[in-house]
Amino acid sequence: MGVPLTRRIAATVPLLFVISAVVFGLLHLVPGGPLAVYLSNPDVRPEDLERLKRALGLDQPVWRQYAQWLGGFLSGDWGFSYSDGRPVVDRVVERLPATLELVAASLVLASLFTVPLGLVAGLARGWPARVAALLSFAGLALPVFWFGLVLQLVFSLGLGWLPSSGRNTPGLEGLADRLAHLVLPATMLAAVHAAAWSRYLRAAVIDTYALPFVAAARARGAGERVVIWRHVLRPALLPVVTIVFLDTALMVAGTVVTESVFAWPGLGSLFTEALARRDYTVLMALLMVASTAVVVCNLIADLVYPLIDPRVRT
Amino acid sequence: MKRLGVAGWVLLTLVATAAVAPWISPYAPDALDLVNRRGVPSMAHWFGTDDLGRDLLSRILFGARVSLAVGLLSALVAAGIGIGVGATSGYLGGGVDAALMRLTDAALSVPRLLLLMVASAVLSPSIPVLVVLVGLVGWMETARVTRAAFLAAREREFVLAARAAGASAARIVSEHLLPVAAPAIAVAATLAVGRGILLESALSFFGIGVQPPAASWGNMLYQAQSTMSTEPWLALFPGLFIFVTVAAINTVGDRFGEGTRI
Q1: How distant is the Cα of B4 from the closest Cα of chain A, in angstroms?
Q2: Number of domains present in the structure of chain B
Q3: Is residue B112 part of a domain?
Q4: Residue B27: inside a domain, yes or no?
């Protein structure tokens, strides 16, 4: 189990370079390049455009610009934002806590949904099992952004229970207020993953339930509750835990949609802002952050697996 | 056509209504009715009207053509690349296989939505280009299942017999290996249709996919977002159609899978 993951990381690191080169090329080779937004602005004179080009190094060949960007990026100099002139690192770092908070909350929520859904779908009989399986099946077909809109429609615009956007009410700094703002975006981000994970858990639970040691535990006189919680759920969770770690990186990327719907001030909304303004230094940095998150999550999954599964310990 | 099931019928109905949309839709999709702007769902306008007085049901029917076409065609692109990569990998094996599968793993770990968003924001693609872009990020699953099926079948007797009889590589692949892999490929390609519809709608939701005045379910949601508190129906119906369509496609895919498990 450990080896393929390590190999995947070995393949992913060169991939970071490929992605960065492709996106860099895409942003620069398009007519107008990173300055395309200024071309349609009548207040920007052609002379200004020329000067801007020279100042930003855009008159150099693309490969040289890329080499310069890459060298800077690797040494921690991520350049300056095209839209407000501030260092890209600062803009990313100030948005990071909001996104981490959102992702952490979604992970917890998704896990809370996954276990009962997976267990009921796998072990119960009759309609409860069918409802649980249907819920996780429906979750996979859900257009995430629409789900967010519906949550907003029902719980904030309709019932008025929860705030519809932002991270806190301006001027208010209570924990309750923060949590109230967190509930809907975290639910939206968690739903798809909970659906996928509970399908994996269901399959794992069904497989595990048929194994001899489960029958042996029951033969020893263990109660059904002990059998399910200790002998079925624990081994069945192992493969799911790996997937949870791998999917965490997808969650980070998924914040783009969630944060846009709920105006959550994190990296995801920074991405949509940067996209709208063709702020290419910020875009490059965020794509690299998202791709690095993938590598890191793979690594964590790789390292954690032996800790939770005694069989692969050597 | 043994048992279509509910999902199959739903899907068939959707495709059929989308195909005949110009003849059955109650209004033209871009017909303005300035007296009935922002109308709640009624007998005249079943799903209501938008801020320009356009009939939402008609726009959904026409949007279905765009959304379904992008989903289907992008899945075709994805299946084409995926079968090519998977067949090469599974047939040749060895170093080529290892290299291609590393590439597939790596491509699977790319945040595809973000890359797609950058590409379509910068290129402002026409619908055909959009189809290709969505297809380009969705071939990996098909490549994997094709490879797995090829590897399993490669050493079976009928393939060895064909090889001993002097059949060319192209002939072995197309006449002996592809038919064995077809059911698994069908499942992967079906799921790719659903994913393509979701990706297109996500892009259009950000205003960088299918461009107005053409209607797609995603860009209808994009336009509905700002007026959601006053005209919620504009956001509810297009999303519901995406949801039902993708759910039906996934169900059909699952059923393919059950019927053909080896």
Answers
A1: 19
A2: 1
A3: yes
A4: no
SS3 (DSSP) at A87: strand
Answer whether B210's CB lies under 8 Å from B200's CB. Answer: yes
In a domain, B11, yes or no: yes
Whether pTM exceeds 0.90? no
Tell me the C-alpha to C-alpha distance, in Å, between residue A39 and each of A36, A46, A52, A237: 5, 9, 12, 55
CATH no. for residue B93? Answer: 1.10.3720.10
pLDDT band for position A7 (50/70/90)?
A: low
**What is the distance in angstroms between the Cα of B132 and the nearest Cα belonging to chain A?**
16
ipTM of the complex: 0.81
Domain housing B183: 2-20+64-258
- Do the Cβ atoms of B250 and A27 come within 8 Å? no
C-alpha distances out from residue A209 to A48, A206, A234, B18, B78, Å: 71, 5, 11, 45, 37
Average pLDDT score over residue span B115-127:
85
DSSP state of B30: T
Residues of chain B contacting residue A242, judged by C-beta atoms under 8 Å apart: none
Interface test with A, best of B102, B108, B110 (most A CBs within 10 A): B110
Tens-digit pLDDT profile for residues B122-174: 887 888 889 999 999 889 989 999 998 888 888 888 888 888 888 888 888 88
B191 found inside a domain: yes
**Subunit contact A287:B115, Cβ cutoff 8 A:** yes
Candidate from A14, A26, A152 with C-beta closest to B122? A26
Tell me phi and psi for residue A87, to 5 degrees.
-60, 135
| B136 near A CB under 8 A | no
**Main-chain dihedrals φ then ψ at residue B49, nearest 5 degrees:** -130, 160
Peptide bond into A116 cis (omega under 30): no
The answer to whether B42 and B89 are in contact (CB under 8 A) is no
Structure tokens at B141: 């699953």
Nearest to A142 among B123, B208, B243 (CB): B243
